[in-house]
Write a structure and sequence with these properties.
Length: about 130
């Protein structure tokens, strides 16, 4: 029902057929659940917005900016990446999780492109400012 209403999107793991990830599609709902809801009682206090924002920046970067940047990277890879750098045109682009048996851990792959060749990559956003301050 939430998927039909466009509030959730389903993403199939590129490496595991039995793993599906659901993401909140509506940016305002994502912001509410990631930033506002965990500190709601603090937000109700007059004048606390600056203090709350300083402590919420990390959640905003990891829960909103990071995932959105990963989506942009996947779309760019599918529609704009140079086929010569990818080993051909990608037929499908997504994300997934791979196992590392050596360290008994898993690693998230932010961009996985499959087509003539397979390509994997990781996206990251820096909080550093560029240019003059």
């Amino acid at each position: 029902m939430l998927e039909d209403a466009g509030l959730l999107t389903r993403h199939q793991d590129m490496f595991r057929d039995n793993r599906t990830v659901y993401r909140i599609a509506e940016p305002l709902i994502t912001f509410y659940h990631t930033v506002m809801r965990p500190v709601w009682s603090q937000l109700e206090r007059p004048g606390a917005a600056d203090r709350v924002w300083r402590t919420s920046r990390g959640r905003f970067a990891s829960g909103i900016v990071g995932p959105r940047f990963e989506e942009i990277c996947r779309a760019w890879t599918l529609h704009f990446a140079d086929p010569d750098r990818l080993g051909g045109l990608p037929a499908e682009v997504g994300s997934g999780t791979v196992n590392d048996p050596a360290t008994k851990s898993t690693h998230e792959v932010d961009v996985a492109a499959v087509g003539v060749a397979a390509t994997c990559g990781r996206c990251s956003v820096s909080a550093r400012r560029s240019g003059p301050r």
